[in-house]
Specification:
DUF6428; alpha/beta; 3 helices; 6 strands; 31% strand; single chain
């Protein structure tokens, strides 16, 4: 479940340092910068014709060659609070942008020690309207030759 802005604000004062970890176990280098905090509003139409609006707080992490830089929890909290004051950012789910091979968008979770960058997946929001069939149940062909019930049970 995606972490909200109020949740990260409650966690930051309890930490000695800020670490972000990708699902593959790799860590964002400890000299990262938070280059943006913003409110992103996505107003769109899905493939079923329904108009939707989603809001998220976006953090952009950047890995610079500034090896002396270490973002402390209090500094990140100050950046968040300044963003709330100056931009009117709401308490919404957080998405994180971080560049590996390309810029990726991640959901944010916390495991008690590190912030986890959780891979996001695309999905159809209008499954009932777009014509994608439900996944069929897989059956082994060898099972089809076996009787499904006992002929003496009265079910057949």
């Amino acid at each position: 479940m995606r972490m909200t802005l109020s949740q990260i604000k409650a966690i930051l004062p309890t930490l000695d340092h800020v670490e972000f970890q990708l699902e593959n176990g790799m860590y964002v280098p400890e000299h990262f910068h938070v280059t943006e905090v913003c409110m992103v509003t996505k107003h769109f139409i899905d493939c079923g014709g329904k108009i939707r609006t989603e809001k998220a707080v976006n953090f952009q992490l950047w890995n610079a060659d500034d090896f002396e830089h270490r973002l402390k929890p209090g500094k990140l909290l100050n950046i968040i609070q300044l963003s709330e004051q100056k931009l009117g950012i709401e308490d919404a789910g957080i998405e994180v942008e971080y560049q590996t091979e390309t810029i990726g968008k991640y959901d944010l979770e916390f495991n008690g020690k590190n912030f986890l960058l959780k891979n996001r997946q695309t999905a159809c929001l209008a499954g009932d309207a777009c014509g994608i069939p439900a996944e069929k149940q897989r059956v082994k062909l060898s099972d089809l030759s076996k009787p499904r019930c006992n002929p003496d049970s009265g079910c057949c």
